[in-house]
Amino acid sequence: YIHIHDFDGMMIAFLANALKNKVIFDMHEIYEGYSYAKLGFVYRMVFNFFQKKSFKMIHVNDEQKNKIKDKYKNKLVFLPNYPEQKYFNPIKKEKENTISYIGYIRDYRALSYLLDCSNELSEYSIGLFGNGTELNRLKNEYGNNRNVLFYGKFDGIKDISKIYRNTKILYCVY
Question: Residue 146 burial (CB < 10 Å; 0-12/13-18/19+)?
Fold first, then answer.
């Protein structure tokens, strides 16, 4: 089996003749019928070819499932990329005035925008949950701010409910 992420990974696998193996196509945000290129029909034609060649296709939301050709829906495996609801019913806030970023720490610019505001948001604590390539750089620059907390790596199953209970505002970077 070969687990391939996204459209560009499928293109490389095709060029490397890897599609003769059982390929699991992890679509992430790729939807059949959507045009991300000026030649949308070419994109759809190639995407349909990859659907045909895939052993299984992982989809992460219902919109993807709805855009797959009916004859290939038996290949779909649903693997949501969000936490299970059972970990969040009900969420009772334990702390007030907490802004949290939860995820891989790689977008220095977007995260530094938040941390630059820490002095002006002195009534809030700002927590970064996760590990990543920019963690040390951010710690070096903002580690002395009294309301900025770096929690580092966390267990996405065990810790996520507590993290959300202690979060008033979620800072998302995309």
Answer: exposed
Read off the pLDDT of residues 75-120 as tens digits, 9 standing for 90 and up. 999 887 776 777 666 666 667 789 999 999 999 999 999 999 988 9
The answer to whether the Cα torsion of 104, 105, 107, 112 is positive or negative is positive
Is 80 exceeded by the pLDDT of residue 38?
no
How many other CB atoms sit within 10 Å of the CB of residue 81? 9
Q: How far apart are CA 51 and CA 73, in angstroms?
A: 10
25 contacts 79 by C-beta, under 8 angstroms: no
Q: What is the mean pLDDT of the chain?
A: 83
